[in-house]
Structure formats: structure tokens, C-alpha cells
Design brief:
Two copies of one chain form a homodimer. Chain A is mainly α. Helices cover 67% and strands 0% of the residues of chain A. Chain A is built from eleven helices and no strands. Chain A has helices at 10-17, 31-49, 52-59, 63-70, 73-86, 90-96, 101-116, 126-129, 139-165, 175-194, 199-210. In chain A, helix 7 runs antiparallel to helix 11, helix 9 (139-165) crosses helix 10 and helix 10 (175-194) packs antiparallel against helix 11. The termini of chain A are far apart. At the A-B interface, helix 2, helix 9, helix 10 and helix 11 of A face helix 2, helix 9, helix 10 and helix 11 of B. The structure holds a DNA duplex (30 and 30 nucleotides).
DNA sequence: CCCGGAAGATACCGTTCGGTACGGATAAGG
DNA sequence: CCTTATCCGTACCGAACGGTATCTTCCGGG
């Protein structure tokens, strides 16, 4: 199936982003695949706990290749966090797109459980445990992650506020409080998953949390 | 969410050493005070993020003094965690001693908020953010903290199960699920406090969480 | 009053950290 | 073919890591 020239494919766009025409020796590893491996290391060990040695070993590349492709450790982490958003954290965007607030909440909570307990991934949530605390020198990264979490919370808030305006939630709903409750339970689930709790046990937590839901 | 008695090692050893007749030059710093300072550093930066340089600077002592008094970094951390249990985390033991399950829950949640947002302390909870993830070499510490959290959860479970047997909670109550819900909300509150949420906002979360309470 | 013994201070240990210089390898363009 | 531009691999950098040897300082008991 071919596309009109006016709508460039992803490959074309990526090629365009490479400012220079393709010259020299081509990269011998898959960038996306290496990024995915790095994401898993950050997920399991956190930003500071993930050493360059552990990262390059998991990615199957050498240090200079890593630096050429991702800038530095912080850049790699940022890309890994973004990659998480389009991968394991994808459920959030899908949840926010649900038609009813109750469905939004349920998908957020079930998705948090499913992602944080997926046996194919490290336990927990990268956005929570990637840099919850940090040494003084890594504090900028910690601050970025804080802002990221808070931006996500703001999106949930906007979605629920819209639901309230639409009559999908009672007009008297304290959207601020409901949002923070929802996100807090998601975060708590992430911590508990990181502590080894089973998917079934955490889904029972979701059942209880949803009993709070208005209307 | 556990109690200091869970890891008695370092404190007991040091206490035993203290029982001998005091000879030689007396210690010129207050051990408890230094431990408290160390706790704050671990609280803010995590186990791995807290360097010996940062620790000794905050404690106002030199490295050899630290090693003489606390063994090594891991030992200092364990003592700091225990110290947290008798200090900022004291509310947990008091909560478990309340006569009614509902009061237990409320004190656990309010205490979590109060401690995690105390302006005199770092934001969040040491038991959550002290070692939620770790590098391979610090993994034993992470595992200890995991066990500590799970032991605390077990204590809450026992308390609620007792309440159920006493008729304080409905006989049909799923204590396992209720416990995990309670602890998850506490953990979520800790994460949100670490992200800068205000005490007021988090107390609204507690209000919502308590609506789940049976009977 | 001196001497045993523990604490404090300095200066250092080997290792690992994040990050890079450099030279050989490998493709496309001419 | 040769040039050119990029990538890979090795080997290394200074700094910071956790931890310690050593010497000086100071107190209590004889």
C-alpha cells in the first residue's frame, strides 16, 4: 500500500531528521532495540544505579557508540523515559481517551497493575522508581521526573474536569482531590509491585479504589 | 512500613560494645545526633545517592569516626532506617495500637501524610525511597527494604484480621485486600509527597481513601 | 604524672564512575 | 579504484566512590 507523497512515512521523516545525506559506515546496531534494553536497565536499577557498564552490556554496544547515538547518560535516560511512554506506559494515553470518566479511572488503575507486574518487564513503574530520589549532582534528573509525574497528573485532572463539565461526573466533584487519589493509588500500586506483590492482589486493590468513584 | 525491631543487628552490637567500661578518649560527637543527620541524608538522596562525603559532612564527623561508630555504609543505613522507625515512623506503631480498625486506618493515613510532608524533614518516606531500586551491588539493601515494607504490611494485616475476628470489621471483609489497599495508598502518598504535593491536598486523598472503609 | 587505649584528622588505598581520544574498519559517492 | 564520512573497539582520562592505615590528641586509671 502506497501513500501520497504529501504524507511522508515515518521512515521518510526519520531520514529527513538526519540532516546530512547518509555517508560513512552505517550503524551496526538497532537504535530502538538498544534503547529498549537501556530502558529496562534504568527501570530495574534507577538512573543513578544504572552504570554505563551495565547499560552498554545490556545494549550490546560500546561506550562510544552509546555516546554517539544518545549524547550522554542523561540523554539516554530521557529517551528511555519517552520510550516508556510509547511502550509500557502507553495505557495512560489510551485511558485518557476513554469516553467515560469511570472507564478512564479503571483503565488507568488496571493498566498500572498490568504494566507494573508484567513478568516480561521489571516490577514497578519507571516514572516512579527511575529517579524518585537522587544525589545532589543527579538532582536535575530527579526534578525532571517530578515534573513529568506532575504533568501526567495534570492531564488526568484535565480529563476529569472535562468529565465534570460534561455531566459525566457530579458537578460537586472535587476533581483535584479525585485526581490525586487516583494517581496516588497508581503510585502505591507501583511501589507494591516493586515490592513483589502479585497482579491478582493488586487488582483487588483496584477493586477497592474504584468503590470511591462517584456516581 | 515496618518496625525497627525487624533489623536489630547493628544497634544491638553497638549497645553491647557500650556496656564495657569506657576507656580511652571519649567520643566527641553525639551518636544519636549524627545518626539523625545521616537519616536525613539517606531520606533525601537514597542509599546509593548518599555518598560518604555527603554523610560525613552532614554528620559533622570524619570517615574513620563514622566507620568506628557504625561499621560501614550499609550498617549506618540500617541504623538510620531503624531510627526512622522510632522517630518519624513512630506513628505506625501508635496507629496499630488504636482500639478500632477505623482509627488504625485513619492514623496510618494521616500519619503518612504528616510525616511525608513535614517541612522539618525531607519529603516522602525513607522506607519507600531509601532503596526502591538499586544497582546490582546494592541489591541486598534493596531486598532488605522490600522485606521491611512487607513485614510492616503483615503487621497491618494482623491488626485488621484481629479486628475482623473481634467483630470490629464485617466478617466477610477481605482483610488481605483491605490491607494492601491501605498500604498502597500510604505508599502513593509518599510518592506524591516526594513530588511536592501539599499536606492539604494529600489529606483530601485520605478523606477519599477512608470512604472505602467498611461498616 | 605518666601511660594504656580509644577517638580524631589526614592522607591515602584500589576500584569504579561518567566520559573520550584515537586508530582501524566499512560503507556510499565519485 | 580512491576519497570521505561515519562507526566500532581499545585503551585511557580525571574524579569520585567506599573504605583504611597511621599518626596525633585526649581522657581515665595506676
Amino acid at each position: 500500500m502506497s501513500l501520497p507523497a504529501a504524507i511522508p512515512t515515518a521512515a521518510v521523516v526519520t531520514a529527513a531528521k538526519r540532516s546530512k545525506p547518509r555517508l560513512g559506515r552505517p550503524r551496526s546496531f538497532n537504535r530502538e532495540q538498544a534503547l529498549d534494553a537501556a530502558m529496562h536497565v534504568f527501570w530495574r536499577q534507577g538512573y543513578e544505579g544504572a552504570s554505563l557498564t551495565a547499560l552498554t552490556a545490556a545494549m550490546g554496544i560500546n561506550r562510544p557508540s552509546l555516546y554517539a547515538a544518545f549524547g550522554d547518560k542523561a540523554g539516554l535516560f530521557r529517551e528511555a523515559v519517552a520510550h516508556y511512554g510509547t511502550g509500557p506506559g502507553r495505557y495512560i494515553r489510551r485511558a485518557l481517551g476513554q469516553p467515560k470518566a469511570r472507564q478512564v479511572a479503571e483503565m488507568l488503575l488496571r493498566g498500572a497493575v498490568a504494566t507494573a507486574t508484567d513478568p516480561a518487564n521489571p516490577n514497578g513503574c519507571l516514572w516512579v522508581q527511575g529517579a524518585l530520589v537522587a544525589s545532589a549532582e543527579a538532582d536535575p534528573i530527579r526534578t525532571e521526573m517530578m515534573a513529568l509525574r506532575n504533568a501526567g497528573t495534570a492531564q488526568v485532572h484535565d480529563r476529569l474536569e472535562r468529565a465534570r463539565r460534561e455531566g459525566d461526573l457530579p458537578a460537586a466533584t472535587d476533581v483535584q482531590a479525585l485526581t490525586l487519589f487516583l494517581v496516588s493509588v497508581m503510585n502505591g500500586i507501583a511501589v507494591q509491585a516493586s515490592s513483589g506483590r502479585s497482579r491478582e492482589a493488586l487488582n483487588n486493590v483496584v477493586d477497592l479504589a474504584l468503590k470511591v468513584w462517584p456516581a
